[in-house]
Design goal:
By secondary structure, the protein is mainly alpha-helical. The protein folds into 2 domains: about 70 residues; about 130 residues.
Amino acid sequence: MKKKQSSSMQWMSIELQDALKKDEGENLFRIVNALDQKDWNGLKKDVYATFYLKKFDHAQERGKEMKLTTANIQTWRKSSAFKKTVYEVEKGYEEKFTMTGLMIIMTGTMVLFFLRAVMAGTYFINFSVDAIVGVIGAVILFVNLRVKYRMLRNCTTSQNFLWMDILSFMLSFLLKMMLPPNIDFTLVVLIVSYFVEKRKFKGILDDFLRTCTR
């Protein structure tokens, strides 16, 4: 039977996607497919799928029968091992948000510097070299924004993070164009926005942790 991944399964981590490719018996595929039909956010689906994968690997190593099935999904949360998985997944999300956030600050600053140089007609070295740096920064910025918002879609339907990013970049660009080159608040604006978003994201994860481990 050929496994088809639904376009709605964007919540899956890279580890789960790799495991699905090696899932010869299609046990994991059936669980993932069942979870995908649930009216849950992506983070909750990710936790349950990760928990199943860990228990499945453990059962395989010990040559034991797998007790977790689609029929008893609602009972998984009673396990202490499940609560541990929730903490691990939450920590992974928090670390990923931190890494993407820092990369967005760094590459966003590079792109804004290049845009100002183009509009002012003054380059740090010359147009060609500055353009290469600007393009590389833009590509890395796009990749990290994509990872960040894919992760956010798993956790919340709120558009607040998107608006904060848009406003912070617009404000940074306006300040860079209006102020003299020796006065630059770009980094300050992006860092403040990052810490505000990080605190808000931590609150979302903490709320999920409380509801998922009750």
